[in-house]
Amino acid sequence: MTTDLLLEGRHFRRDWSSPYDIGRKAAAQNLADIAAMGAVPTALVVGLGLPGDLPTAWLDGLTDGFGDECATVGAGVAGGDIVRSERVVLGVTALGDLGGRPPVTRAGARPGQVLAVAGRIGHAAAGLALYEAGRAGEWPALAEAHRRPSPPYSCGPAAAALGATAMLDVSDGLLQDVGHIAAASGVRVEIDPALLPVDDALADAAAELGEDPLRWVLTGGEDHALAAVFPSEVAPPGEWRVVGRVTEGEGVQVRGREETYGGWDHFRG
Amino acid sequence: MTTDLLLEGRHFRRDWSSPYDIGRKAAAQNLADIAAMGAVPTALVVGLGLPGDLPTAWLDGLTDGFGDECATVGAGVAGGDIVRSERVVLGVTALGDLGGRPPVTRAGARPGQVLAVAGRIGHAAAGLALYEAGRAGEWPALAEAHRRPSPPYSCGPAAAALGATAMLDVSDGLLQDVGHIAAASGVRVEIDPALLPVDDALADAAAELGEDPLRWVLTGGEDHALAAVFPSEVAPPGEWRVVGRVTEGEGVQVRGREETYGGWDHFRG
């Protein structure tokens, strides 16, 4: 079970995103949270605060977005509540089925295990940078990654079944979120930047904007990729890419750089 | 599973209610919804939108209120989300355990069955009227009923176990809510006003304010009493009071008055 509160003007803008994309994104971030515990998402309920003058078509678009994102995992919108509000407010709660397994938390990582990621990372941050630079049209896939995340839902329960010891979805940036695993598990996590996925579009867009693509990958949020720690004897399945290892200590370190997690709050590229 | 979105200024006021009472009330209305389906409430999650300048003590009071109301049913606050917001926003979702039974909906009432209520009805409306008249101090129990409902949680699963065919919690007024049962079940419900509970405090306060206490009982919301329909061969247990019966037809009628449900929207006392 997981819940998020999303406010117009803070988490989304009606002039930047379509209601359909807002619905898909709001559903995705909750469904990804369920998958990251190793569960299969089953149902969503939505509390809606809506302005009295909101066009019906806007609400239809939002509803379609929620429904379509849920449909990608075989879940559905089970109900909700509607109240009048000056600005749009979304209170989203998702439920999942653990299939009898205990939930995978952030606290089970142990030295000697490996860190792996599944799904796109840094693409949403790249898309946002492209929107801000007025160049979103040149990299439509990155722009879409910002408007609509595509979490690798099925990788969550699959990782749990293989014995993943810690997992979460990357919503605030890989460094910060893996830092949560390090803190909760009482371990240190070393990330090897050479193993991080940087595809051509990300590299090209970064070069054009004078950015370091690794900054997007390490600190960009909102992709809702999954990051999980596996025992060393487990070979993570195809969708997973090993990007680091767990050691004794604390914090997150990126190999070849001196800073640990705290320093990366002020990452300068 | 049930969810409600509560907005400052629309559902509560920080200058009228303490944070503790706001927390208890927000929890109560969701837990009552769970009980009204015949389930035992198990957990609550809360999405909190909070102004940056909100005093920490206010949040502590709110949290205590949520926790104490949950404790009355053996449930707990399992988690949540906090975001910054101009005004306080509460997105509350509750879960319950049906104990293997199907949920009791609004749609199972059949002619020949009886309507019963459990818990206080009309007290919250009386309390609000007393606050508005500046006389809340004279009837402290009614005033408290407005600030803090006291739903008869355990009566919900007990009614379900006895075979209740329809049930809900009275949040918008007995007439309107029983009207939902009549509509969903395709039946008519006759309420006998002589059977409705009007205690001395309610009668006294109504006399002083020149009000009809039955108006509070029939149309007052927010008490979160439970209303349930039982098969005629079931004797509802002690906490339940039979107040009417189910017949063929549609709508809700109060014996001795001509109007059916629609007319009661404009109840004049």
UniProtKB/TrEMBL annotation, chains A, B:
A Pfam family this chain is assigned to: AIRS
Alphabetized SUPFAM superfamilies for the sequence: PurM C-terminal domain-like, PurM N-terminal domain-like
Binding positions for Mg(2+) 5 per the UniProt entry: D172
Annotated metabolic or biological route of this protein: Cofactor biosynthesis; thiamine diphosphate biosynthesis; thiamine diphosphate from thiamine phosphate: step 1/1
Molecular function GO terms recorded: ATP binding; magnesium ion binding; thiamine-phosphate kinase activity
Catalytic activity field: thiamine phosphate + ATP = thiamine diphosphate + ADP
Binding site for Mg(2+) 1: T3, D4, D81
UniProt-annotated binding residues for Mg(2+) 4: T3, D33
EC number: 2.7.4.16
Protein's job: Catalyzes the ATP-dependent phosphorylation of thiamine-monophosphate (TMP) to form thiamine-pyrophosphate (TPP), the active form of vitamin B1.
Protein name: Thiamine-monophosphate kinase
Gene: thiL
